[in-house]
Design goal:
The chain has 1 helix and 11 strands; from the N terminus they run αβββββββββββ. By secondary structure, it is mainly beta. It has one domain: Immunoglobulin-like (Sandwich), CATH 2.60.40. The strands form 2 sheets. Strands 3, 4, 5, 8, 10 and 11 form a 6-stranded antiparallel sheet that branches. The chain is globular and about 35 Å long.
């Protein structure tokens, strides 16, 4: 089941991109249907790809490195719950950014979308 990118873009919490100690982060909030992530695509910010080991996905139920998400170590994406995606590394300079976000779920397969946000 392919979900259109324009619907997936609604998952992104606009204005959530921010620099934090040790890197930067943004949030997504599932408003569509419960899902279980079994893989995450490499995160891209303005076409710069960040390694899976630098990306940590956090919710109120815990956190996991993107490199550790798998069928046997899945990550629940519940409706109405915000998920923070933290990227370890340098802070981003002020400006506008295109984020390419993608993950694979048990329920809907591969989901990928891009959004634009600014610092």
């Amino acid at each position: 089941m392919q979900i259109p990118a324009f619907l997936l873009r609604k998952l992104y919490v606009k204005g959530s991109l921010e620099n934090v100690d040790g890197g930067f982060q943004f949030r997504i909030k599932n408003s569509l249907a419960p899902a279980t992530s079994i893989a995450m695509d490499p995160l891209k910010v303005n076409d710069e790809e960040y390694p899976h080991d630098a990306v940590i996905v956090k919710s109120d139920e815990g956190e996991v490195k993107a490199s550790e998400i798998s069928e046997s170590n899945s990550f629940a994406i519940k409706v109405g719950v915000e998920i923070t995606v933290f990227v370890a590394g340098d802070s981003l300079p002020e400006g506008e950014y295109k984020l390419d976000i993608g993950f694979t779920t048990k329920e809907a397969g591969k989901l990928a979308f891009d959004v634009t946000d600014a610092l």
